[in-house]
Amino acid sequence: MSGTFLGMPSFPRAAREAVRDERLRRNLRHATHTIRDKRARAVAELDDWAELREAGKRIKDRTLRHLDTYLLELEERVTAAGGTVHWAEDAAEANRIVTGLVRATGEREVVKVKSMATQEIELNEALEEAGIRAYETDLAELIVQLGEDRPSHILVPAIHRNRTEIRDIFRAEMGRWGRPAPDGLTDEPAELAEAARLHLREKFLRARVGISGANFMVAETGTLVVVESEGNGRMCLTLPETLISVVGIEKVVPTWRDLEVFLQTLPRSSTAERMNPYTSTWTGTADGDGPDAFHLVLLDNGRTRALADETGRQALRCIRCSACLNVCPVYERAGGHAYGSVYPGPIGAVLTPQLRGTTSEIDASLPYASSLCGACYEVCPVAIDIPEVLVRLREEVAGRGGKGHRLEKAAMKAAGWVLDHPGALAAGERIAGAAGRLLPERLPGPGARQWTDHRDLPDLPAEPFRDWWRKNRP
Ligand code: SF4
């Protein structure tokens, strides 16, 4: 069982703890800089990268505009191919459906792969409550599960661990979950991979139920697509008798032609590969080939609410490549856990508050987990303008005037009144100019003081611009 994000403190509080952890910062810096440099080289190889990026953006926007049509088409095709489609409005409904489906098979164990959506709904916890044990099979997710940890990166959920820590987790925990780590296991990557392979193979061969997510769903044929690097996905998708896929509704693309664009941009943006090592596709069921039963659980869980927001909906274009995390100066220092969600980094800061709303302390703090430097937008293969969405969400949070925003709201209200009354504005400018030297360098009050602790107040000119203009205009 991995740790849950429930009850996480706000981003600034969690980040304050994280930045004190020198080992975490060293691990993150090394990993993110390595991936980002490789990505930059892989992207630079393509002359038409800008066109691919624009095409990906347009395909996703068009699909989101007609999402209902494509989802119904997908349902029809999956059903015609022998699968069963379930619709889940929220996490509780999705968990109920999946738990019921596993129970109906009589099994008490499942293997899992590629399933951020199931982490989002905390499916493992729901299964455990129902007496069903879920085994993560992605190497990084296995490390997170064995360490009773939480994922901290979209693509490399155990990015905060170095190989010595992984060796220690394998030695201490593998035996509790199945085949123990080999005697004398070192922290050599090949040995760690072999230990994971032996441990997981046992699970693959025994499991009768597999649970997956999907990177894409192709509406025109009802095909699901999983893109991964280890081959564990293929084992999970083909060996069990029953396959249950839990997928967010925004993952649909209309045609294979559309998919072609993302199969070029995703590998280069995520792992800096020219082509993805294991791309598995499946359509319903087939006699004597793969699972006998296939269930697709289409998950909303806040996505239609995000879709209704004209600025915020662009976050649903995300193909989870993680490029924005690897260039983000805030993520690099704070790490993924501080975001209190399975979606960390810049995309998490805009996606989580839209999926969960901005009423909790942690969700209201996420839109501020950014310097608005724009590096995330520059690298995003589907051109999500994350800073634009962050500002939109900040407006929503500040507009409510909740904790930490009352002063800001009152100041904006007062500024609005002054700007509406030119006489008052001119008088205010003169008074401020005359009193300029007497003004303090730091503003009073906890909120305002925090602001001026790290920023200089600009010097006020002795003469307001309007007066200067009156005297000097030609
Ligand atoms: S927002 Fe863009 S860069 Fe970030 S994970 Fe999603 S697709 Fe990748």
TrEMBL record:
UniProt key word Hydrolase: no
GO aspect biological process, one term: lactate metabolic process
Residue intervals of the LUD domain: 73-296
Compositionally biased intervals (Basic and acidic residues): 451-474
Entry keyword Iron-sulfur: yes
InterPro entries in alphabetical order: 4Fe4S_Fe-S-bd, 4Fe4S_Fe_S_CS, FTHF_cligase-like_sf, Helical_ferredxn, LUD_dom, LutB/LldF, LutB_C, NagB/RpiA_transferase-like
Pfam hit, one: LutB_C
Example of a GO MF term: 4 iron, 4 sulfur cluster binding
Sorted UniProt keywords: 4Fe-4S, Electron transport, Iron, Iron-sulfur, Metal-binding, Repeat, Transport
Chain intervals for the UniProt region annotation (Disordered): 438-474
Lactate utilization protein B C-terminal domain residues: 395-471
Occurrences of domain 4Fe-4S ferredoxin-type (ranges): 315-384
NCBIfam families reported in the protein's UniProt record: LutB/LldF family L-lactate oxidation iron-sulfur protein
Protein name, UniProt field: Iron-sulfur cluster-binding protein
Source organism of the structure: Streptomyces termitum
